[in-house]
UniProtKB/TrEMBL annotation:
The chain crosses the membrane at residues 21-44, 76-94, 100-117, 138-159, 179-198, 210-230, 250-267, 274-294, 300-322, 349-368. CDD domains: GT_MraY (cd06852). It comes from Silvanigrella aquatica. Belongs to the glycosyltransferase 4 family. MraY subfamily. This is Phospho-N-acetylmuramoyl-pentapeptide-transferase. InterPro entries: Glycosyl_transferase_4, PNAcMuramoyl-5peptid_Trfase, PNAcMuramoyl-5peptid_Trfase_CS. It is found in: Cell membrane; Membrane. Its EC number is 2.7.8.13. GO terms for biological process: cell division; cell wall organization; peptidoglycan biosynthetic process; regulation of cell shape. Catalyzes the initial step of the lipid cycle reactions in the biosynthesis of the cell wall peptidoglycan: transfers peptidoglycan precursor phospho-MurNAc-pentapeptide from UDP-MurNAc-pentapeptide onto the lipid carrier undecaprenyl phosphate, yielding undecaprenyl-pyrophosphoryl-MurNAc-pentapeptide, known as lipid I. PROSITE patterns: MRAY_1, MRAY_2. Pathway: Cell wall biogenesis; peptidoglycan biosynthesis.
Length: 371
């Protein structure tokens, strides 16, 4: 909104040319970050008080973990503030005519809505069941399909020469120069799987104070850098990297998301004053998966989001092993509970996972040169 206003003022009167500094992508990304931090930091204390007065506490499953039971009653649905602060900042500083804004908006609002319904049912019914897994998956698939449909339709209606871009149904293979696979008609279900899978993986990771939000920030920061590169023809050609028209604007969106996540982390560090709930975890995971799809980093997401992959795989392995062999591989799944069962303090697990996530982010950025 502010970006479009600045551009209009410059066109109307040259006297406003000094405002052009605020129209640059880097300037708007920084301003979006600051805006979302301020908004979230301002809203969380009020939200915590209101949620406590409404007794909107997070129901806790009986896992045999004393630390987990101490969290009973902690306000949840903090993800709503993350979404609100992100979108408010985005509306102010992002170019709203950018086609990728619509794709990200569908996922952010849609996945956030599904998560909200799940959180609301848990709170009102005073149990951990919430929305049934089938209904939750159906909701995610509907909004994921809508987002990918818009993305592909808008991609195929571009007037940019295709030789400069990654073909809309193609997947880039990291660390290998010019190795691109065109999935054709199979791309849509693949892309939807990436988005919905990432959403659920982040949700599974959100089990300890500050655990999920740390890797979300490192992944968002990595994707922000990669989005800028793929959106800049000069930089991408210099690095012999693929180009995605308009993807540079996504860096403003991700910058706003990082700011809102930092604001949330302030109140989510141990001992947490508020949880993000499914309304936050599903939306954040969906955003990361969607950006990876838009920018052609679906495969690289496995590396940068290695923490989420490990958490999801631990659940799959545990269930498969118990059903086929009657034995458990881990003491408890997701894997962060395994280390709790081994006696690791919650803070140690969280910080070590943050460190691993940071290393994976650096390795992912290296793909810009190591090919």
């Amino acid at each position: 909104m502010i970006y479009l206003l600045i551009m209009k003022l410059i066109m109307i009167n040259p006297k406003f040319s000094g405002l052009k500094a605020f129209s640059y992508l880097s300037s708007r990304a920084i301003l979006a970050l600051i805006t979302s931090i301020v908004v979230s930091m301002f809203l969380y204390p009020k939200a915590i008080r209101i949620l406590r007065s409404l007794k909107a506490g997070q129901p806790i499953r009986e896992l045999g973990l004393e630390e987990q039971m101490l969290k009973k009653g902690t306000p949840t649905m903090g993800g709503i503030i993350i979404i609100f602060a992100t979108l408010l900042s985005v509306i102010l500083w992002m170019d709203l005519t950018n086609r990728h804004f619509i794709t990200l908006l569908i996922v952010t609002v849609g996945f956030g809505y599904v998560g909200f319904l799940d959180d609301y049912l848990k709170i009102t019914q005073k149990n951990t069941a919430g929305l049934s897994s089938k209904k939750k998956m159906l909701g995610l698939l509907i909004f994921g399909t809508a987002a990918i449909s818009w993305h592909l339709w808008s991609s195929f209606h571009l007037s940019v020469p295709i030789s400069y871009t990654l073909y809309p149904t193609s997947v880039n293979i990291p660390f290998l120069k010019n190795v691109i696979i065109n999935l054709g008609i199979f791309y849509a279900p693949f892309a939807i799987l990436v988005i919905v899978g990432t959403s659920n993986a982040v949700n599974l990771t959100d089990g300890l104070d500050g655990l999920a939000i740390g890797p979300v920030i490192t992944c968002a920061l990595t994707l922000m850098i990669l989005s800028y590169v793929t959106g800049n023809i000069v930089v991408s050609k210099y690095l012999y990297y693929h180009t995605i028209p308009g993807s540079g604007e996504i860096s403003v969106f991700l910058s706003a998301l990082i700011g809102a996540s930092i604001g949330f982390l302030w109140y989510n560090t141990f001992p947490a004053q508020i949880f993000m709930g499914d309304s936050g975890a599903l939306a954040l995971g969906g955003i990361l998966g969607t950006v990876a799809v838009i920018t052609g980093h679906e495969i690289l997401l496995v590396l940068m989001g290695g923490i989420f992959v490990a958490e999801a795989l631990s659940v799959i392995i545990q269930v498969a092993s118990f059903k086929t062999r009657g034995k458990r591989v881990f003491r408890m799944a997701p894997v962060h509970h395994h280390y709790q069962k081994k006696g690791w303090p919650e803070q140690k697990i969280t910080v070590r996972i943050w460190i691993i996530s940071f290393i994976l982010a650096l390795l992912s950025i290296l793909t810009l040169k190591l090919r």
